[in-house]
Specification:
139 residues, elongated
Length: 139
């Protein structure tokens, strides 16, 4: 492989990290905020509606686990990318069961968020694949 393909591969990882950094940071801020509320007030979200179905909790939890996959991908691209994509697909599967109205823009927002979270995961996997090909050609 040429030196230019190695540079392109490294740029791909850089782009994946640039896209994933604000996603990870946002999820971390949300986690800290809910944790702080839970410690100080005894409830994570004092404005939460009571008696809603548990299924509505599953997509945000799966999205958070997908973001954890992005954080793992900073060190181990293959493992983190796979974790990210598995939880993104699981989220996309569970969203229709939450009862969202897809006739409004509010119903499509979780789907759009999942796709945004999946983009850097895909880029990490593409980087891993290209870098493994480069390493195999060198040996």
């Amino acid at each position: 492989m040429t030196d230019s393909s190695d540079k392109t591969t490294k740029r791909l990882r850089l782009i994946a990290r640039i896209i994933s950094a604000p996603i990870i940071l946002y999820a971390l801020i949300m986690l800290i905020g809910y944790g702080y509320n839970w410690v100080t007030t005894g409830t994570a979200d004092p404005y939460a509606v009571e008696d809603y179905p548990f299924i509505e909790n599953i997509p945000p939890i799966l999205m958070f686990l997908a973001v954890i996959g992005l954080a793992i991908a900073w060190r181990w691209e293959k493992i983190g990318g796979i974790i990210n994509l598995l939880f993104c697909v699981a989220t996309l599967i569970t969203i229709p069961f939450t009862g969202l109205d897809f006739q409004s823009s509010r119903g499509w927002m979780p789907m759009i968020l999942v796709l945004i979270i999946a983009v850097p995961g895909i880029l990490f996997l593409v980087y891993w694949q290209k870098s493994s090909k480069i390493n195999n050609n060198l040996h």
